[in-house]
Design brief:
The protein has about 375 residues and is an alpha+beta fold. The chain is about 25% helix and about 30% strand. It has 7 helices and 18 strands. The strands form 4 sheets. Strands 6, 7, 8, 9 and 10 form a 5-stranded antiparallel sheet that branches. Strands 11, 12, 13, 14 and 15 form a 5-stranded antiparallel sheet that branches. The protein has a 4-stranded antiparallel sheet with strand order 1-18-17-16, with no helix packed on it. A hairpin with a 2-residue loop joins strand 8 and strand 9. The chain is globular, with a radius of gyration of 22 Å. The termini are close together.
C-alpha cells in the first residue's frame, strides 16, 4: 500500500474569467443578477453586484456574500477583515459557517494559533457536524503549520517574463530539454462577451537559458494537432521515455468545467503526431491530470476523476496500460491516498507518488504530499 507523508508546497491551477461591467439597477434586480452570476460560475461579477447591493441597502446578508466571495477568490486579507467583524458581532451563533470560514482565512494568512482557537470554538459549539469534522482536520493542519520550518536550501526563481504572461500558466512538465505548460497567453483581460475571439488555453513549450541568470525563451505554441480550436488544452505530462504526451481537452460552462477528457499523442521524427482520446479512462465524468507511472511492474496511467463511488470529490485513480493509448478499467487508490476532500495532480517518480490534497492535514488549501509504494 501507499504510506502518506506530509511535504511542503502548494499546487493549484485554474482559468480566471473576468467580470462584466455593471449597469445601475434596483437592489432586487442586482440580487437576481448576482445569484445568476454565481450559478454561471462568474464569482467576479457576483462580487461586484453584492458590493453594490450592500452599498445601497446595508443588508448584512449581502455583506456576508461579499466576505464569502472574497474567500472563494482567495483574497484572504479582505475576507479576514470582513469575516472578523461579522463573527465577533454574532453573539447568538447564527452563522457557524461564517465562523468556520473566518477560521480558514486566519489559517490561510498564517495565523495558526488564532485559527486553532476559532476552529476550537466551532467544535465546542457543535452546531454543524460536518463543520466540526472539518475543523478537527484543519486544527491538525494548524499544528503542522506552527511546527513547519522553511527549508534553508530552498530557492524559488521565476523563469522570466518571456515565458510567463499576465494570465495563468499551469501544469509545467520538463522533458527532452523543453518545458511544456498550458497558458491563456494573453496580455489583456479576457471578457467573455461574444467578441473574445480565440481565448482558449493552449499547450506551449519554452527552453531553459543557455547561461546562468538568463531567462527561459519566448514560448512556442504546439500545432493544431494538439491545440484543437474551441477547446481548452492543459494538464500536460510526458512519459519517462519522452515519446508519449498526455493532456486534457476541456469545455467550460461559465467558470465550471463541463467536460474534460484525457488525450495522448506520440512523438515521431517530425515531432508530435495527431492526438487521440485515451481509451479506458474517460467516461461520463471529469477526467484530468494524467501521469504515466508504474505499479506491480506494469506501466499505468495515474489520473484524477470524480467517478461516482469514490472517497469523495476528485480522487486519484490508476489504469493499467495495455498498449499505446489503451488502458484497463480505472482503479481507485483507496482511502490512504484519497479523502472526502479533493485530490489533484499526481506525479510519479522512482516508486513515489506526489500529489496535492486538501483532505489530509495541511498548511492550508491544496498542499503537496508524497506517498511511497510499499
Amino acid at each position: 500500500m501507499f504510506k502518506s507523508v506530509v511535504s511542503l508546497g502548494l499546487l493549484l491551477w485554474a482559468v480566471h474569467l473576468s467580470a462584466q461591467p455593471l449597469n445601475r439597477s434596483t437592489p432586487d434586480a442586482m440580487l437576481k443578477a448576482a445569484k445568476q452570476a454565481e450559478e454561471e460560475g462568474n464569482p467576479y461579477a457576483a462580487l461586484e453586484y453584492y458590493e453594490n447591493i450592500y452599498q445601497e441597502t446595508k443588508d448584512p446578508l449581502a455583506n456576508h456574500a461579499v466576505a464569502r466571495l472574497h474567500f472563494e477568490l482567495r483574497d484572504y486579507q479582505r475576507a479576514e477583515r470582513l469575516l472578523s467583524k461579522i463573527v465577533l458581532r454574532d453573539r447568538r451563533n447564527m452563522y457557524p459557517d461564517l465562523k468556520f470560514l473566518y477560521a480558514m482565512t486566519l489559517k490561510h494568512n498564517g495565523k495558526y494559533a488564532d485559527a486553532e482557537d476559532m476552529f476550537g470554538q466551532v467544535i465546542a459549539d457543535g452546531l454543524d457536524s460536518a463543520l466540526v469534522a472539518r475543523s478537527k482536520l484543519e486544527m491538525a493542519g494548524c499544528k503542522l503549520g506552527r511546527k513547519a520550518k522553511q527549508p534553508e536550501t530552498l530557492k524559488v526563481t521565476n523563469i522570466g517574463k518571456k515565458a510567463n504572461s499576465p494570465q495563468t500558466e499551469a501544469s509545467p512538465w520538463y522533458s527532452g530539454g523543453e518545458l511544456y505548460f498550458s497558458s491563456l497567453a494573453s496580455k489583456d483581460v479576457i471578457v467573455i462577451d461574444g467578441k473574445e475571439g480565440d481565448w482558449y488555453a493552449k499547450i506551449y513549450t519554452t527552453k531553459p537559458p543557455t547561461q546562468e541568470g538568463g531567462e527561459f525563451s519566448a514560448p512556442a505554441v504546439l500545432g493544431t494537432n494538439i491545440n484543437r480550436e474551441g477547446w481548452h488544452q492543459g494538464n500536460v505530462s510526458i512519459a519517462p521515455d519522452g515519446k508519449t504526451m498526455y493532456f486534457t481537452r476541456q469545455e467550460l460552462e461559465g467558470n465550471y468545467v463541463r467536460t474534460s477528457k484525457i488525450y495522448y499523442t506520440l512523438k515521431g521524427d517530425e515531432g508530435w503526431g495527431a492526438a487521440n482520446e485515451v481509451a479506458g479512462v474517460n467516461g461520463d465524468y471529469i477526467a484530468r491530470h494524467p501521469c504515466e507511472g508504474e505499479l506491480y511492474g506494469e506501466k499505468v496511467l495515474f489520473f484524477v476523476a470524480d467517478i461516482p463511488g469514490g472517497q469523495g470529490g476528485f480522487d486519484i485513480y490508476y489504469a493499467t496500460k495495455k498498449r499505446d493509448g489503451v488502458f484497463g478499467l480505472p482503479v481507485n487508490l483507496g482511502p490512504v491516498i484519497n479523502t472526502p476532500g479533493e485530490e489533484a495532480s499526481p506525479f510519479y517518480q522512482d516508486g513515489k507518488l506526489y500529489f496535492s490534497s486538501n483532505g489530509h492535514p495541511s498548511l492550508g488549501g491544496l498542499d503537496v504530499f508524497v506517498s511511497e509504494w510499499d
